[in-house]
Each structure stands twice: as structure tokens, then as C-alpha cells.
Amino acid sequence: MLRRSFVLGCAAAAALLLGSVQPTTAADRFITVASTTSTEDSGLFKSILPKFTEKTGIEVRVVAKGTGQAIDIAKRGDADVLFVHHKPSEDKFVAEGFSTERKPVMYNDFVIVGPKADPAKVGGSKDVSAALKSIAAAKAPFVSRGDDSGTHKSEQALWKTAGVDPTTGDGWYRAIGQGMGATLNTAAAVSGYAMTDRATWLSFKNRGDLDILVEGDKRLFNQYGVMLVNPAKFSHVKAADGQAFVDWLVSAEGQQAIADYKINGNSLFFPNANEPGA
Amino acid sequence: MHEFGLAFVTAFHLIADFDPGLVGIVGLSLRVSLTAVLLSALIGLPLGAAVAAFRFPGRRAVTLFLNTAMGLPPVVVGLIVYLILSRSGPLGVLGLLFTPTAMIVAQTLLIVPIVAALTRQIVEDLLVEYGDLLRVMGTGPVTTLFTLLSEARWSLLTIVLAGFGRASAEVGAVMIVGGNIDRVTRVMTTSIALETSKGDLPLALGLGVILMTLSLSVNFAAAMVRETRRA
């Protein structure tokens, strides 16, 4: 008797669950895009992807990671399109045969944010090298992504330009190995400095005491590129649909969609697909 | 402190508005975690009972392994499943990475040891009481297992609920193998992680409130079943 009710209970639970297992989305035409946290967290994709899907019927599934991890996902063949922001890594990706062509899409810029009290006195500076030197000299807390992302790589390059090796400091430089948002949360919590892309900053809500202190240096330029994962390398790559997305991003329509995305009247990304060498 | 107040207001609004995005996320969370729990029960309950009831070589090693595996770090399980299901991995041809199925697989691997290890302990205790009787009756192995599981069913329900708690609360594994893709593999815990990274702490905490409410409902339902069946 007891046994029967137990078995019945199990069977009922099984039937209930199996009945609920069904495809989440009706669309079976989709591509997977490995991209960065900045494009996802800033809300750009939420704004532009529906326009692409409406036009083509292709659903875009975005896996948003740091640039380093996104490239790794693409290199394993787990994405159809790679959309990231670190040109040297992207060129290497193409050189290694994982894609046949990289196309520039848009840019924004990095900024240095920090506490309003500004212990390193860098506020208003347009010279990022000098600013980083001051932060190091003041031993003011600086929170770094430390996650091999595009932003992290650019930050490391800037420290190099400034002639400072922050990792030898005595604890003021904190590499937390997390995404942009977590880095800003940490910087807000410890009233520290951090480098962030402007798009994430503009859409970030937990700013605490932080404000933009350094901006406008040409070296803070942040270029995004897109590439189709090479179907010759991975036969399952959805070449036609992936290429359609790449082409749309750099088309007049896609570029306009990017330009149209604003928060409080501020543009977050600036399309520049037609700029030679971008 | 006012974040806590805001979180409850946010949670209330999300529920009251029956936010369609939220409904999808909650539905996927339940679907993934409940399926994983069901599979884990189907595997773990007989497995745990068998380890308790039968003598075989390596039994102590299996017990030790199951007990240790209860503490498997979700992020490690996620990574292993990721490498196996990746297109460059051994099961890559299935194309399961970044799908709810991959999330179910990862969570099942996480919960089976919990269900099996705890079942083993409970059934072993039960055997002290019933062992002689079963031997006298000369029941076969399958009947023995079912009798033991059936006798222990209310304790086992608690174990299954513990498994559900583990599944619905973990973020490490589903984040890696699911990829947190909007409307495809985004569940409650990965949404909370995402909103935290966007700096929207009240929304993140509000989602946390909803997740705990959900967990409360599942446990409440289980308690109701238990009460009515016992009466």
C-alpha cells in the first residue's frame, strides 16, 4: 500500500515535470554571439537586437563575458559570432584562422572614475598617464578588473605607458578578477579609483560617491569589432545567419540603431564601421 | 539600509505587475531545478538505498565518495560540464552548451550525491529496525529497496527538498553552462548576479526575495502533502 502510493507519487511528479518541459522559444532560427559585458550591461543589445530580429527573423542569443573569455568561447566553436573590444586580440583571432575578417563597428571611451574627495588629485585631468602616476604615488585604492577582459588589457597597457607597475604596490591596487559591474561596486564600496567604459558607467546605478575624474585622453579610446567565426574551422557555425548579423551591424541601418541608443540623452556608443583602420 | 525596503517594494511590484520577463525567468528556474531534482531522485534514491542495503566490494569507498561529493563546488561542476558539452569537447556534437538541458545536467550532477548520500544514511538506520524482518521474509533485492524507500518516504522528502534548495540557489554551474542568455538560459540566480553587476542592487535583492518566496512555496506545498497524507 505504502509502496504503491510512493510509486504513484513519483509517477505523478514525473508526468507533471515532463509535461512542462518544452522549448523555451518558438524560434528555431538563432545565432549565438559571444560578446562583452559592456554591450550587454549597458542595455545596447536590448535596444538594437529586436530591430535585427524583426527584419531577418533570426534570434540573437548573447553570451556576455569579458573579452578574453568571449574569445575563448568563440575559439572552442561555441559561438557563431564574436563581438568584442580589444583590437590586438581580435587581429590575433583572425590571424589564427578563427575568422576570415574583422569589421570595426563602433567605439566609445574609457574613463577613470574615483571618489569625489579625490585623494590623488586627478579630477579634471585629460592626461591619463599623469593621473595613473598620481594615483600610484598617493597609494589610493585602485580597483582593477583583473579578468583578462578588453578593459583589463587596455588598463594594463595604460599602466605600462605611465611607467608604473601597480602589481608591486602594497595593497592599494586590487585586481578582483570580476566583471565591470562588480569592479564598480567594489570601487564604490572602498571609495577607490577604477577604469570603466563609459557605456557601463552611464547605465550603472550603484555609483555611491564615485564620479568621472579623468576623460578625454585619446589613449582612452575603446574600439569594438565584430567577426564571424570561421565556418571552415567549425562546420556547425551558422555562417549565413551569422554573416547576416555582422553585415547588419555595419550597415547604415545597424549603425543608426547603435547611434540611436541613448541614456538620458547621452549616446553610449558611436558607430564607425566606415572609418578606415578602426 | 533603505535598499532593503526598496527591495521589498521592487519585489512586490514585480509580482503584482506579473512582469512577463520575470514570469519567464521564474518558469525556467522551476523547470530546470525541478527536472534536475526529479532526475536526481530517480537516480539518487535507489542508489543510496542500494549502498545501504547491500554488501559489495568498495562499499565504504562509495560511501566516502558520495559524502564528499555532497560538497562539490557548483562552479567546478559547471566547468566540467562546460568542457564536455563544448563544441570542442567529447559531447560537442550534441550542441547542448548554452541550453536549459545543459543546466539540468549540471544541477543533476550536483544533487545526485546529496540525495544518494543522505538516503544511504537514512536507509541504513532503518535497516537496523527492519533488516531482520526483511531477511526472514526473504524478499528479493528490488522489493527490499522499494520497501525501504517507501518506509522512509517522509524523511526522503526532506532530502529531495534539500536537493531542490541546492539546485534553485546555485549560480556557479548554471552561469557557466547556460551562459545567462536572455529568455533562453536566464534563471533567477543568474538574473540576480546580472542585476548586481549592473549596480541595480534593489532589483537584485528584490529578485532574491522572490526566489526565496518561491522556495518557501515549494517547501510549503511539500509540508501540506506530508500533513494530509499522514493524517
From TrEMBL, chain A:
Residue ranges of domain PBP in the record: 24-253
InterPro entries for the chain: ABC-Tungstate_binding, PBP_domain
Entry's transmembrane regions: none
Residues spanning the signal sequence: 1-26
Gene3D superfamilies, sorted: Periplasmic binding protein-like II
Keywords in alphabetical order: Signal
Pfam families reported in the protein's UniProt record: PBP_like_2
Protein name as catalogued: Tungstate transport system substrate-binding protein
Organism per entry: Azospirillum brasilense
TrEMBL record, chain B:
Gene Ontology cellular component terms for the protein in this record: plasma membrane
Localization of this protein: Cell membrane
Protein source organism: Azospirillum brasilense
Residue ranges of coiled coil: none
PROSITE patterns, A to Z: ABC_TM1
Lineage: Bacteria, Pseudomonadati, Pseudomonadota, Alphaproteobacteria, Rhodospirillales
GO biological process, any: transmembrane transport
Protein name: Tungstate transport system permease protein
Keywords: Membrane, Transmembrane, Transmembrane helix
Residue span(s) of domain ABC transmembrane type-1: 26-222
Superkingdom in the source lineage: Bacteria
Transmembrane domains' residue ranges: 32-54, 61-85, 91-118, 156-181, 201-225
Lipid bilayer topology: Multi-pass membrane protein
